[in-house]
Amino acid sequence: MRTLIVWGVSVSALAAALTGAHGPVSTARASEDLPKTRGDCQTCHPNEARDWAQSRHAAAWESETFAQTSRNRSLKMCLPCHAPEPILVKGLGEHPNLRADDRTHGIDCISCHQDANGAYHGTLGTKTDAHATVKNEKFGTVEMCATCHEIFGTVDWYKQSEWGNDPHGCVNCHMPVVERPIATGEGLPARKARIHKFEGATPEMFQKGVKISHERRDDLLQIKLESVWVGHTVPTGPEYVVAIVEARFLKGEAEVGRHQTLLADNTAIDGNDTRLKPGERRVIRAPIPEGATEAIVRVLHKRNRELPDDQARILYEAKVSL
Length: 322
Ligand code: HEC
Ligand code: HEC
Ligand code: HEC
Ligand code: HEC
Ligand code: HEC
Fold this sequence. Notes:
binds heme C; alpha+beta; Immunoglobulin-like
C-alpha cells in the first residue's frame, strides 16, 4: 500500500489500470464479470447480456413463484414458454417447445434470436464474421411477443388500447432505444439499440404508467388511479398475478385500520375482473377510522396471489396526513 502512495497513484486508479478499465479493454478480463449466456453472446454483446440478466426473462425458469404454481415444475403444460427452444424454429405465433438443456437460463438470447440454421435475427441489417445474421422485419413486433404473451389476454387488451395499431408497441414501452455500438470491436458505429431489461412490474414502470393521487373527503380517503401509459390491464399475466391498493391508517404509531382493494382477474372464481383497464380512471373510497392521524397508501404486486403481503413487491408508497 505504502509504495502505491509513494508513486502518487491512487489505489482505485491503479486497479482500473490493471483491469484495463482506462486502457484498451481486455475482453478476457472483462467477460469474467459478465453473466454467462448460452452461446457466449456476452463476450461480444456485454450490454445486452448485463441488461438481460436483470430481466424476468432470465428468471423465467428459476422463479420461485413459477415453481410454486407449476407444482415444482412438474406440470408439463407449464414448462415450454418458461424454457423454450428458439421460437424462430416453430415460427412466431406458435407456442414453443420445451428445450432439453440448460433450462435454468429461462428465456435467453438463443430462445429469441436463433433460427433453425443457427443464424441470429434482428432488424438492423448488420453483417459480421462472428456469425450469420438475418434481417427480419417481424423481429420485435407485437406478433413476436405474442408468441408467449398472447395466452393471458395481454395482446387482446393491447389491440383495444390507444397504442393498439403500432406494430412495435410492446418494445417501444418495454425496450427503450439507446444509440450505442451493439458489439465490442474496433470501429463499430453507434446504432439504434434496445435496452434488454424488459422492465415490467417495477416501481419506475408502474409510476410512469399509472398516476395516483389521494385526498381526504369528509370521513373518506379517496385514492384516484389513472392508467395513462399502459397498453394492457394492470396487472396483466396469469391469474396468479395480482396487485393490491392498500391504505393503512395510523394513530401515532398504532395501526387503527386497513383497507385493501384487489386488482385481479377473478373471472374463474367469481366472474369479476377488477384489473385497471388501459385509459381507466378509478376512485377508491376508504373509510377513515376514528382518530386516525395519518394514512400510508401503497400498491403491492404479487406474482403468486397466495404470497403474504410482506413478500409483495411495493410499486408505490406515500404518507398522507389526515
Ligand atoms: C465474436 C463476437 C460475437 C459473438 C460471440 C456474438 N456476436 Fe452477435 N454480433 C457481433 C457483431 C460484430 C455484430 C455486428 C455489429 C455491428 O455491425 O454493429 C453482431 C450482430 C448481432 C445482432 C444484430 C443483427 C441485426 O443486424 O439486426 C444480433 C441480434 C446478434 N449479434 C445476436 C447474437 C447472439 C444472440 C449471440 C450469442 C448466441 C451473439 N450475437 C454472439 C459479434 C458477436
Ligand atoms: C424476449 C426476446 C429477447 C431476448 C431474450 C433477447 N433479445 Fe436481443 N433483441 C430482442 C428484440 C425485440 C430486439 C430489437 C429488435 C429491433 O427492434 O430492432 C433485440 C435486439 C438485439 C440486438 C441488436 C442491438 C440491440 O441491442 O438492440 C442484439 C445484439 C441482441 N438483441 C442481442 C441479445 C443478446 C446477447 C441476448 C441475451 C443476453 C438477447 N439479445 C436476448 C429480443 C430479445
Ligand atoms: C418464449 C416466450 C416469450 C417471448 C417470446 C417473450 N416473452 Fe416476455 N415473458 C415470458 C415469460 C414466461 C415471462 C415471465 C417470466 C417470469 O417472471 O417468470 C415474461 C416476462 C416479461 C416481462 C416482465 C414482466 C414482469 O413481471 O415484470 C416483460 C416486460 C416482457 N416479458 C416483455 C416481452 C416483450 C416486449 C417481448 C417481445 C419482444 C417478449 N416479452 C417476448 C415469455 C416470453
Ligand atoms: C404504453 C406503454 C406500454 C405498452 C404499449 C405495453 N406495456 Fe406492458 N407495461 C407497461 C407498464 C407501465 C407496466 C407496469 C405496470 C404493470 O405492472 O402493469 C407494464 C407491465 C407489463 C408486464 C408485467 C405485468 C405485471 O403486472 O406483472 C408485462 C408482462 C408486459 N407489460 C408485457 C407487455 C406486452 C407483451 C406488450 C405488448 C402486447 C405490452 N406490455 C405493451 C407499459 C406498456
Ligand atoms: C404460452 C406460454 C406460457 C405457458 C404455457 C405458461 N406460461 Fe407462465 N407466463 C408466461 C408469460 C408470457 C408470463 C408473463 C406474464 C406477465 O407477467 O404478464 C408468465 C408468467 C407466469 C407467472 C408470473 C411470473 C412468475 O415467475 O411468478 C407465473 C407464476 C406463471 N407464469 C406460472 C405458469 C404456470 C403455473 C403455467 C402452467 C399452468 C404457465 N405459467 C404456463 C407464459 C406462459
